[in-house]
Specification:
The protein is an alpha/beta fold and 399 residues long. It contains 14 helices and 12 strands. Helix 1 packs antiparallel against helix 4, helix 5 crosses helix 8 and helix 10 runs parallel beside helix 14. The radius of gyration is 22 Å and the shape is globular. It binds pyridoxal-5'-phosphate (PLP). Pyridoxal-5'-phosphate binds next to helix 5.
């Protein structure tokens, strides 16, 4: 008989919620639930006040508490609960969904309420959430590479890897060791490396956040976020706090998330492979072709990071599907998107369709020479030919 081995992400994304079906209906495809409110049991002896249910859940030490019955959709709802069941399996930690990626990051700050947060050039929206906390609590910001001695127990390091919009990676293990050496916690924004590309918990993370709007949704049609916690105690507190902050994922978004996550591994592995081929091809073309070098100053992507021993351990299945194309002049970055046929010029990323963004359109913190490239599911050779043609057109322009 074949040796027992853990099921793959592909299998779990389709079956990790099989037990959920029995709680509601017998449909194979998840139904759309839009109700905000749910019947109580008809039998009076089966009526348990909500506070008793929450207390029983908090007292549960099995690590796998009985989920709350559906009562009101701000507390919990069928589609998002079912999605959480899958995410908890794929992310290797009990997972809570939110109305957006920033709502998920906000939830980590509400949960941990650090006095100091150490973070780098991460997603611009996260900096603005930190700004709100600074106003409310006096939260201090430290650079990502601050000396470990500047961190104190209860502080938070927020590490985004791979990094938006560059697609470059930094060592989760190194930041986990730095945080834990001072009694601080590590939160990893792993949006750019969804399963099966990266498992931050295996490298020491305490919280893992994703903007589900990107690869978990994967079709540019849902806004959502997720926080995975290292332990069930933290997850229970996150769920409780979400009930009262009110940042729940909508019913239709939960359903769209279920529809999408079935193909997560298939999409992400293909997108990662195509992005790596394209980043390497473009860096090589730039090195040998002066016309391309007149437009492309640099390509950034984890696949181009040389000699990083930790990187293979951190991303054994491939690098993220986003890379940075840095032009020589800002005008070239502004014009390039209009010269491409197979890339939408739009913000956001992670969809089945490839997109580029002249990043200055939405990110106040990046240079005007940055074009973020998000690779979708088109044939990589078509994307390659489109990029080469577009870059040669830009090279021929007097800008
Ligand atoms: C998009 C994004 C976010 C914010 O997510 P929303 O769903 O837009 O709120 C956070 N982090 C990263 C890395 C992102 O790309």
């Amino acid at each position: 008989m074949a040796q027992e081995r853990p099921p793959s992400v592909a299998t779990l994304a389709i079956h990790a919620d099989d037990t959920h079906t029995a709680r509601t209906v017998t449909d194979v495809a998840p139904p759309v639930h839009v109700s905000t409110t749910f019947h109580y049991p008809r039998d009076p002896s089966a009526l348990t006040p909500f506070s008793d249910l929450v207390a029983a859940q908090a007292a549960d030490t099995s690590g796998n508490p009985e989920p709350l019955p559906y009562i009101y959709s701000r507390l919990s709802a069928p589609s998002s609960t079912r999605l959480e069941q899958i995410l908890s399996t794929l992310l290797h930690g009990p997972s809570t969904t939110y109305s957006s990626g920033l709502a998920a990051f906000h939830a980590v700050l509400v949960r941990t309420n650090p006095r100091r947060i150490s973070l780098g050039n991460c997603y611009h929206g996260c900096h603005n959430v930190v700004k709100i906390f600074t106003r409310l609590t006096g939260l201090q910001t430290l650079p990502l590479d601050c000396p470990a001695e500047d961190l104190h127990p209860g502080d938070l390091i927020h590490l985004e890897t791979p990094l938006n919009p560059d697609g470059t990676a930094s060592s989760i293990r190194a930041y986990a060791e730095k945080a834990h050496s001072r009694g601080a916690l590590l939160c990893v924004d792993s949006t750019f490396a969804p399963p099966p590309l990266q498992d931050p918990f295996a490298l020491g993370a305490d919280f893992v956040v994703h903007s589900a709007t990107k690869y978990i949704g994967g079709h540019s049609d849902l806004l959502g976020g997720v926080v995975a916690a290292r332990d069930e105690h933290q997850a229970a507190s996150l769920r409780w706090e979400r009930m009262y902050v009110g940042s729940v994922m909508g019913g239709l978004e939960g359903w769209l998330g279920l529809r999408s996550i079935r193909t997560l591994e298939l999409r992400v592995l293909r997108q990662s492979d195509s992005a790596t081929r394209l980043a390497r091809w473009l860096a090589g073309l730039r090195a040998r072709d002066p016309q391309i070098a007149a437009v492309v100053a640099r390509v950034s992507h984890a696949s181009l990071q040389e000699g990083e021993a930790w990187l293979q351990e951190q991303m054994p299945s491939g690098f993220g599907p986003v890379f940075g194309l840095h032009t020589v002049r800002g005008e070239q970055a502004r014009v390039l998107p209009s010269r491409l046929r197979w890339f939408h010029h739009a913000t956001s990323l992670g969809g089945v369709e490839s997109s580029v963004e002249w990043r200055a359109m939405t990110d106040e913190f990046v240079a005007r020479t940055v074009v973020r490239v998000s690779i979708g599911l088109e044939a990589w050779e078509d994307l390659r030919d489109d990029l080469e043609r577009g870059l040669r057109e830009v090279a021929g322009m007097e800008i």
